[in-house]
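ok new one. same drill as before - structure tokens go in, u give me an amino acid for every spot. 409 of them this time. try not to just spam alanines like last time pls lmao
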């Protein structure tokens, strides 16, 4: 079998998605996610200009060889643009292999290690009553693990906290694409945050009892010492994990945090390769790997990093926001189904419009996510629907401190 076409499809149903569609001479197609939130067109160009011409004529069966060829022959390794492009090719080839074999991809990765994937939902509130409502809503939706984000007195706008109350019965996008010409500026005050957050978790624990798994995303905003203090302060409330407590590129930071707290730590959504996370795993400085198939080079490296992590009892907690497309989500669901050291899958749920563009076989029943048993990844692109939504520039927000200094957000 030979690859005869590889097309890059950019669509923007509610947010921007970049998808690679690989076609073989036998008419089998495979999909891959190459979406890099806020920098989407750079990956689309990387694929179109530099990857697609290299794929034509190759045997789609040789996934590992194609991955190594794209990674090594490019000379310039790693980085989110390169690795999202390679990820899309890797996913598309696994999709094709599954379709040819007549099996869902998780079967090719070793078969199911569980009935489905435990997931966590997102809750947020500008005050406690709103937060409690939001948590109740997520519980009713089937989640037994919930990420809790809260407004902080003195901070006007905070990423991850919905700007309005969750309408009852409606799934809410906590981090909608901001289709603005420039990134929206938000404000930040770490001391106010550190003072406020433990009280919020105390109130949530008192209200919802000991069973509910609670998570929090620090979104890279703290110094190592501040993160260590927050981890300690949150210990009485038994968090499932504290995510991205410090900027991910400073891996030494996790050593300091770890020495001070037993709050479990999760990191990795911005990592692109095993070299970003190997020391954190082998030194047992983290508990959960937050990498996403899309930004980590695809299914092949994600499976490998998890097998490496298994040696150290480190589990998965793959990044599943709405800017990872249904194709990227499916790719990591298949990995999660197969590996023994699965932990928890983030599940934000895509919009109805997105789900009309990407037709999926996944199911979500009683908090358990399953990729379905369609051959391949279980996602098909409805190209007519996709063509309705033109690319629209959209940016993530950013933070400034009171004196105007740009801060990690
Ligand atoms: C999460 C993430 C997202 C990211 C977003 C960036 O834990 O879900 O932090 O909120 O900010 O996916 O593109
Ligand atoms: Mg995060």
């Amino acid at each position: 079998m030979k690859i005869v076409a590889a097309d890059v499809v950019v669509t923007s149903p509610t947010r921007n998605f970049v998808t690679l569609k690989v076609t073989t001479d036998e008419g089998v197609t495979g999909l891959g996610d190459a979406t890099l939130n806020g920098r989407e067109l750079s990956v689309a160009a990387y694929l179109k200009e530099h990857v697609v011409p290299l794929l034509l004529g190759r045997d789609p069966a040789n996934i590992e060889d194609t991955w190594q060829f794209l990674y090594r022959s490019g000379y310039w390794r790693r980085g989110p643009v390169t690795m999202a492009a390679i990820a899309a090719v890797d996913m598309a080839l696994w999709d094709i292999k599954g379709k040819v074999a007549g099996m869902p991809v998780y079967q090719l990765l070793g078969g199911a290690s569980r009935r489905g994937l435990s997931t966590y939902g997102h809750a947020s509130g500008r005050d406690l009553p709103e937060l409690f409502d939001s948590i109740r809503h997520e519980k009713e939706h089937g989640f037994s693990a919930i990420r809790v984000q809260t407004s902080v007195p003195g901070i006007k706008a905070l990423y991850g906290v919905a700007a309005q109350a969750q309408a009852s019965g409606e799934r809410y996008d906590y981090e909608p694409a901001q289709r603005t010409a420039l990134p929206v500026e938000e404000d930040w005050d770490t001391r106010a945050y550190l003072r406020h957050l433990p009280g919020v978790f105390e109130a949530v624990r008192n209200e919802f009892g000991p069973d509910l798994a609670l998570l929090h995303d620090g979104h890279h905003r703290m110094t190592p010492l501040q993160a260590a203090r927050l981890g300690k302060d949150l210990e009485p409330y038994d968090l499932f994990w504290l995510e991205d407590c410090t900027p991910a590129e400073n891996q030494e930071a996790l050593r300091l945090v770890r020495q001070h707290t037993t709050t479990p730590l999760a990191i990795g959504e911005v990592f692109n390769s095993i070299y970003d996370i190997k020391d954190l795993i082998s030194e047992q400085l983290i508990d959960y790997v937050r990498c996403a198939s899309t930004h980590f080079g695809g299914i092949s490296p994600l499976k490998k990093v998890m097998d490496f992590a298994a040696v150290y009892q480190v589990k998965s907690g793959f990044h599943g926001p709405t800017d990872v497309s249904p194709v990227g989500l499916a790719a990591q669901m298949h990995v999660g189904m197969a590996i023994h050291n699965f932990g928890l899958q983030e599940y934000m749920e895509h919009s109805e419009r997105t789900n009309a563009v990407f037709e999926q076989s996944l199911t979500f029943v009683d908090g358990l996510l399953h990729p379905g048993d369609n051959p391949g990844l279980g996602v098909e692109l409805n190209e007519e629907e996709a063509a309705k939504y033109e690319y629209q520039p959209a940016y993530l927000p950013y933070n400034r401190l009171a004196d105007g200094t740009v801060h990690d957000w």
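The two ends are 47 Å apart (CA to CA). and btw Residues 37, 175, 217, 219, 269, 319, 321, 323, 346, 396 surround D-gluconic acid (ligand 1) (CB under 6 Å).
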